Amino acid sequence: MFDLKDLYQEIIVDHNRSPRNFRKMEDADIKAEGYNPLCGDKLTVYLKLDGDVITDVSFEGEGCAISVASASLMTEELIGKTVEEAEKIFGTFHELVTDRDSPIELDKVGKLGALAGVREFPARVKCATLCWHTLNTALHDQDGKEHATVSTE
After folding, report:
1. Phi, psi of 68 (to 5 degrees)
2. Which domains does the chain have, with CATH numbers?
3. Quick count: other Cβ atoms within 10 Å of Cβ 1?
């Protein structure tokens, strides 16, 4: 019988073993660094923008399987989206992994739904959201700087 948890597990394992868009972007318009001292996850998110459209997004760093898979899934989800769309996706994702009472609506979250299980493990939420908070920092806290840093403590 088909088990949704098995599918989610496969997605996380696949994106951890073969992360998408895992590379330093030399010509990035914006970059931000993220660090989760509880787990040791460290990553840098790179963005290329054309106006308010994310034309490319990548990441590099190291972390646990959930952190790497989340960053990989995030990059796939955001290429071609506007900054406003990215903010909405971040909000939806954050609710998905933090609100235990919120229903999981796969039509809204797609493959990101693979990370919904972390809502049952509060310590792992920071692993799943590190890349998203780093992205948010990159989009909003730049003030003309080349890079910003976020730490999830």
Report:
1. -65, -45
2. 4-151 (3.90.1010.10)
3. 3
pLDDT tens per residue across all 153 residues of the chain? 345 567 678 899 999 999 999 999 999 999 999 999 888 999 999 999 999 999 999 999 999 999 999 999 999 999 999 999 999 999 999 999 998 887 777 677 888 989 998 988 888 999 999 999 999 988 886 554 444 456 665
Please say whether the dihedral angle defined by the alpha carbons of residues 136, 137, 142 and 143, taken in this order, is positive or negative.
positive
Q: Distance (Å, rounded) from C-alpha 35 to C-alpha 151?
A: 5
In 37-82, alpha helices (H): 65-78
Cα 103 to Cα 122: distance, rounded to the nearest angstrom: 17
What does pTM read for this prediction? Answer: 0.88
Report the SS3 class of residue 35.
strand
Query: How far, in Å, CA of 89 to CA of 117, rounded?
Result: 18
